[in-house]
Amino acid sequence: MTSKNRTVRIGLAQINPAVGDLEGNAAGIREMTREAKQAGVQILAFPEFTLCGYPPEDLLLKPRFLKDCEAALMRLATSARGIVLLVGAPEAPERNGQKPYNTCAVLAGGKIAARYRKIHLPNYGVFDEKRYFQAGEEALVCRFGTLAVGISICEDIWADDGPTPLQTGPGEARIVFNISASPYHRRKGPARERLMRRRARENRCYLAYVNLIGGQDELVFDGSSVLAGPDGKTIARCRPFEEDLVIADIDPERGPRDARRRKADPGVRLVTRNLRPLTTPRTRPQAKRRTPLHPKPDEEIYRALVLGTRDYVDKNGFDGVVLGLSGGIDSALTAAVAVDALGRKRVHALTMPSPYTSAATLADARMLAKNLGIDLLEMGIDPIFDSYLSVLEESFRGKREDVTEENIQARIRGNLLMALSNKFGWLVLTTGNKSEIAVGYCTLYGDTAGGFAVLKDVPKTLVYTLCRYRNRKAHRALIPRSTITRKPSAELKPDQTDQDTLPPYRILDTIIELYVERDLSIDEIVSRGLDRKTVQRMVRMIDMNEYKRRQAPPGIKITPKAFGRDRRLPITNRYRGTGSKSRR
After folding, report:
1. What are the phi and psi torsion angles at 312 (to 5°)?
2. Was domain 297-502+545-550 assigned CATH 3.40.50.620?
3. pLDDT of res. 512
């Protein structure tokens, strides 16, 4: 960069890696690098842990994994000629017995020219980084001739005492790259962008934030990478929920300089690395493309479910999926998501009517399968159910029918689905929602039997909302209207409805949000105008069913606090928070 040409062309490469696929991820990085080089990009940033995928969890405890990551990084560095790459990867410790670092490698001139080590390690919610990493202590600024560039990783930009003030103040950086792996939950994208705009304004710098996209077990990464200017305004944004490359020409000398910086962590020192000046682009300035809008809430949640389902199935090597289609709303939404994620030819449905299945729900199951264009097998469970009752007749003599007979039906269905899974290699998708899983309104080894729970973090009231959204998108009743308007029922006994056992779902979902997601006490929930007995009963059901949730399959996180990685309570637990005495 010279005084005559102060413009810097940067790129944000939002890609979808797979955990542990070092060669596949490196190939994706090289492909995006080739595209960026053709467009004249000088600095191209990839997300946190792009090379190995995020989160690699206990793979980081394997010394061989760290060695293989380093070898892959060194091979990748040869691609950094005529362009500077910022690539996230783990770095082995200098001495045995130490933890590795979460780093951003600066690849330039065909080699690893510098590394930034993540300083702020998140250890809340789904994050467990202090288990795996040691923290860095240096705020890195790379100088490419007269251009000073700061680098940080994910939490470093969220922390009020992060390294950015040091980099943009004494370090004189006018551009700061933050590479990130920030998981999705509803409305996270707009919230992230507001933070990046604020940090850019506070530090009077260009802030280039690049985030992962893709599904990894229970997590979905939505991307929504963004470039913010010193005035706190958005300059460019990547498309959410898909791979994307955004290129921008910026003049780091333009814009206000009178920053109101926060104080940096006093334990962090500023370090500068002098590297070769950037290669001047030979192509014309990039034409500005239209910045995509953030999706509306219903659309973004639905797209997160589709992406999470697709990546779980594809990254784990399944040819297709199978699910039970009951004619109810949960299985209808699960089927619609699966078709949008995988295509109709890879989705298989099984309807399993019992003595209590109504003609209306069976008709809806058939209509939905026809609307979605998926194959539907029908297997009545009456003879199997009768054989169970016959075998158990002597043992059950003198006992009235109760939930036992209901659960037998659910377990028969789970058995049939698993048989198809074994025979054809299809992944079983369970169809239970967050409301049911929260209070244990589900059957172990029955409707919980399967490999992936698409709606695990979707409350029942949101299920209805998403079904209506999908119908609006289709411009027709893709999901039959009768499925949406019918009273929900497990249909495991005569004239059964969910509200025989549970309060209306709008009340139940409010209790779950306040108790599970916000950690409010019973008294605090009741103070919101809810009936105390109902709250106490639902809280007790939530607490008593942790053992079921531990045995349920993984599912997609879409709320700020999901069951599983977000919320880990002991199964053996006598604390109820109700003020009642111990049962001892």
Report:
1. -65, -45
2. yes
3. 94
- From the list 37, 99, 118, 557, the catalytic residue is 118
Known catalytic residue: 548?
Answer: no
For the beta sheet containing 234-237, the strands, ordered from the edge strand earlier in sequence to the opposite edge, are 234-237, 226-228, 206-211, 175-180, 147-153, 138-144, 269-275
In the predicted model, is pLDDT for residue 266 greater than 80?
Answer: no
Q: Give me the residues paired with residue 322 across strands.
A: 348, 428
Which residues on neighbouring strands pair with residue 478, listed in sequence order? none
CA distances for 124 relative to 121, 129, 451, 566, angstroms: 10, 9, 26, 8
Three-state secondary structure call for residue 558: coil
- Mean pLDDT of the region 127-136: 92
Look up residue 345 and give its DSSP letter: G
- The question of whether 345 is a catalytic residue gets the answer no
Strand partners, 84: 43
- pTM value > 0.85: yes
Catalytic: 581? no
Helix 505-512, helix 460-474: angle, nearest 10:
110
H or E segment and range at residue 180:
strand 175-180
User: What is the CATH superfamily name and number for domain 8-257?
Assistant: Carbon-nitrogen hydrolase (3.60.110.10)
**CB contact set of 121 (below 8 Å; sequence gap of 6+):** 102, 129, 130, 133, 135, 155
- Spatial neighbors of 150 by CB under 8 A, at least 6 apart, are 139, 140, 141, 163, 164, 167, 168, 171, 173, 175, 176, 177, 205
Give the span between the Cα atoms of 478 and 468, in whole angstroms. Answer: 9
Which residue ranges make up each domain of the chain?
8-257, 297-502+545-550
| Torsion, Cα of 43, 45, 49, 55 (10° steps) | 170
Rounded Cα distance between 548 and 252, Å, is: 55
Amino acid type, 345: K
For range 524-536, the mean pLDDT: 94
Rounded to a whole number, what is the distance in angstroms from the first to the last CA of the chain? Answer: 75
Q: How many residues does the chain have?
A: 584
- Catalytically annotated residue among 52, 69, 142, 154: 154
- HSE, CB side, 13 Å, CA atoms: give it for residue 378: 10
How far apart, in Å, are the Cα atoms of 400 and each of 105, 381, 403, 477? 67, 21, 10, 42
3-state helix, strand and coil shares in percent for the chain, rounded to the nearest 5: 35, 20, 45
Residue 499, pLDDT above cutoff 80: no
Which region among 7-21, 248-262, 322-336, 461-475 has the lowest average model confidence (pLDDT)?
248-262
Cβ neighbours of 69 (radius 10 Å): 23
- Quote the DSSP letter at residue 515: I
The C-alpha angle 275, 14, 40, rounded to 5 degrees, equals 50
